[in-house]
Amino acid sequence: EVHLVESGGGSVQTGGSLRLSCTASGFTFDGNAIAWYRQAPGKERRDVACIGGRDSSPYLVDSVKGRFTISRDNVKNTVYLQMNNLKPEDTAVYYCAADTIKTCTYYDGSYYYIRHFTYWGQGTQVTVSS
After folding, report:
1. Are strands 68-73 and 78-83 parallel, antiparallel or unpaired?
2. How many Å apart are CA 52 and CA 32, to the nearest integer?
3. Cα 101 to the chain's mean position, in Å?
4. pLDDT, tens digit, for every residue of 53-78?
5. Cα–Cα–Cα angle for 63, 66, 23, nearest 5°?
6. pLDDT band at 118, cuts 50/70/90?
7. CA dihedral angle for residue 104, residue 88, residue 123, residue 82, rounded to 10 degrees
8. Any idea of the CA torsion for 26, 3, 48, 110, to the nearest 10 degrees?
9. Apex CA 32: angle with CA 38 and CA 46, to 5°?
10. Which residue among 26, 36, 96, 104 is the one 20 to 30 A from 59 at the CA level?
């Protein structure tokens, strides 16, 4: 059974930083893609970032580019989301997701999108106050 456990959430002020971790078990971590999503209160869950399994290529949505970075440690079965210069609009529950896919994005000829992921963690709350 696949287990994804997120940690590192908390409350910070605008401009602060947090590092989220997602540790996987019951899953062949090395070589497979991992993603981060978030869901703000009253809103739909949205993708944030993903990292490929084949070449660890990162992808981040425009709203977090330049502020967030995603990385992975295949020895620790862990993916990290480093979040800097946090804004109140980053407030959300952040979820880790995994799947047995090598690349985490697809291109429709115009835009890149993060693929659908099958396995999900329980989420960790991030609150940014102004």
Report:
1. antiparallel
2. 7
3. 15
4. 877 889 999 999 999 999 999 999 99
5. 85
6. very high
7. 50
8. 40
9. 15
10. 26
